[in-house]
Amino acid sequence: MRSRVLAAFVLFFAGVLAPACSVSNVPSNAMPMIRARATSDLDCADKDVRIEEQLGGHFKAVGCGRKAYYRAACEALRCVVSGEGEAMVPWRDRPDPAEVDRQRDRLPFE
């Protein structure tokens, strides 16, 4: 009896937490960033850009006779979008912006 209750408890929390960690959150969280990148990269008006979601956080943007491919990865509400051929840097591996500013201020200017 006790193991059934424990198993039910674990399954319940796994079901509650799974949607927050799944790839299904990528499209809704990353879509504004993908759309902004696509309109800029394709040099096309927002209304003329069509974005198709593909598997595993991959997207295809089509507009104004051009197309571009993007990858997106989200951690909670933070998303990273990279274009085809660009290296993708996860959020936890990115430097703190304040630290980057301090290092830039220390560099001698030429």
Report on this model:
The protein has 110 residues and is α+β, with helices and mostly antiparallel strands. It has one domain (23-106). Helix content is 43%, strand content 24%. It is built from three helices and four strands, in the order ααββββα. It has helices at 2-21, 25-41, 97-106; strands spanning 50-53, 58-63, 66-75, 78-83. The chain has a four-stranded antiparallel sheet with strand order 1-2-3-4. Strand 3 (66-75) and strand 4 (78-83) form a beta hairpin. The longest helix is centred in the N-terminal third of the chain and has 20 residues, at 2-21. The protein is flat. The model is unreliable at 13-24 (pLDDT under 50).
Determine the mean pLDDT: 75
Judged by helices, strands and strand pairing, the structural class is alpha+beta
Give the overall shape, derived from the CA principal axes: flat
Q: Beta fraction of the residues?
A: 15-25%
Series of secondary-structure elements, N-terminal to C-terminal: HHEEEEH
The neighbouring-strand order within the major sheet is: 1-2-3-4
Q: Count every beta strand, where a strand is a DSSP E run of 2 or more residues.
A: 4
Tell me the helix content. Answer: 40-55%
The description of the largest β-sheet is:
4 strands, antiparallel
What's the quick description here?
This protein is an alpha+beta fold and 110 residues long. The chain contains three helices and four strands. The protein has one domain (23-106).
